[in-house]
Design brief:
Layout lengths: L13 E5 L1 H11 L6 E5 L6 H10 L5 H10 L4 H8 L12 H11 L4 H11 L5 E4 L6 E6 L4 E3 L1 H11 L3 E7 L7 H8 L3 E4 L4 H9 L4 H7 L3 E5 L14 H10 L8 E5 L5 H8 L10 H6 L3 E5 L2 E4 L2 E4 L1 H12 L15
Length: about 350
């Protein structure tokens, strides 16, 4: 794997903001490029195993935090399997062992961020993971038809049922202040990255927490948005890259970032068909409209096939991020007839 840093020298401080699969995928590759990583993770999830622990124990949702910790961990394969193991029966059915460990850490810690830090120490992670806030916040979505849905886990079905775009999302209660360490990580960053990840439920919720956008705006760091590869049913059907950027700016600030990295590798037809059956498609990069928003576009062949899914290749993504940081031209290889 290509690396750009020497541990004996200064390594760039990179702060990544997001949540879900997209953020953890990026972190898996980025930890080999710099040891100075901070992941700031959304805490609005209220579904699945995280939602159960949230309701029963009164703690912030552990799922996305756990995924990011595992992505940055340096542990044996067996331990990683254990952390990802989900119980298949009984009262713990569907629950992740890693979630339970983080819940136990929370029980013996003074705060949730302290529990996250302790788990990071146990799993010997590169860098650190921070919740965007320790406060108990939920997500509320308003649709273009005027209807409102409370709870992140309900947004998907509500959008499909209403068949109209999300007008805005908000956190409840509001205002809520960000964790001071999260704000400090942004202020001290050499590069700030937003995405990849679910637009309305992984990235934007972080921007709605008090102090985050102001810290990003006032930072002299290089600011980069990483576009998703596919649209997301229940959130962004039919959205182009510029549509994503407009929503990010509308929910925060036009000074959020001035660079965008997009995938330019065509998705195989059989996977395009599979995704289309679920209401998703490969995101269109409308370069002119992106540039009209004051955002410079970088493109590279980042998509990889993982069984029946399309994901960013962690290593390639990390390498392109570092090329942009070093002011090197990204790889521009694209032939619309070629697929992987």
């Amino acid at each position: 794997m290509e690396t750009f840093f020497d541990h004996s020298l200064h390594t760039p401080a990179i702060t990544c903001i997001g949540g879900g699969t997209g953020l953890s995928t990026m972190l898996r590759g980025l930890k080999y490029q710099t040891s100075n990583i901070t992941a700031i993770v959304a805490v609005t999830d209220d579904g699945g195993g995280s939602g159960v622990l949230r309701e029963e124990l009164g703690m912030p949702p552990p799922g996305d935090i756990r995924s990011c910790i595992l992505a940055l961990s340096n542990i044996e394969p067996t331990m990683e399997k254990l952390m990802s193991y989900r119980f298949e029966s009984g009262s713990l059915e569907g629950q992740s062992f890693g979630n339970l460990l983080l819940a136990a850490m929370n029980g013996i810690s003074a705060s949730f961020d302290e529990a996250v830090a302790r788990m990071g120490e146990v799993l010997a992670i590169t860098g650190r993971v921070l919740p965007v806030t320790n406060e108990d916040i939920r997500l509320m979505a308003e649709f273009e038809d005027g209807s409102v849905v409370f709870g992140e886990s309900k947004i998907f079905e509500a959008k499909i049922e209403r068949n109209c775009r999300i007008k805005r999302v908000q956190i409840v209660p509001s205002p809520v202040l960000a964790l001071p360490e999260s704000v400090k990580a942004i202020q001290e960053a050499d590069m700030i990255i937003m995405g990849p990840g679910s637009l309305y439920t992984s990235i934007i919720p972080n921007l709605l927490v008090g102090g985050i956008v102001k810290a990003i705006e006032s930072s002299n760091a290089k600011k980069l948005y990483i576009s998703n590869i596919m649209t997301q049913p229940g959130e962004t059907e039919g959205y182009t890259v510029s549509d994503h950027i407009k929503e990010l700016f509308r929910h925060s600030s036009n000074n959020l970032f001035d660079m965008c990295l997009v995938n330019n590798r065509a998705v195989p037809p059989e996977l395009v068909k599979r995704y289309s059956e679920q209401g998703a498609s490969q995101i269109t990069t409308d370069t002119q409209k992106i540039e009209e928003l004051g955002v410079e576009v970088f493109s590279a062949p980042l998509a990889e096939r993982y069984n029946h899914l399309v994901r960013h290749n962690p290593e390639k993504l990390a390498q392109e991020i570092m090329r942009i940081f070093r002011n090197k031209a990204p790889t521009r290889i694209f032939d619309g007839r070629k697929v992987f």
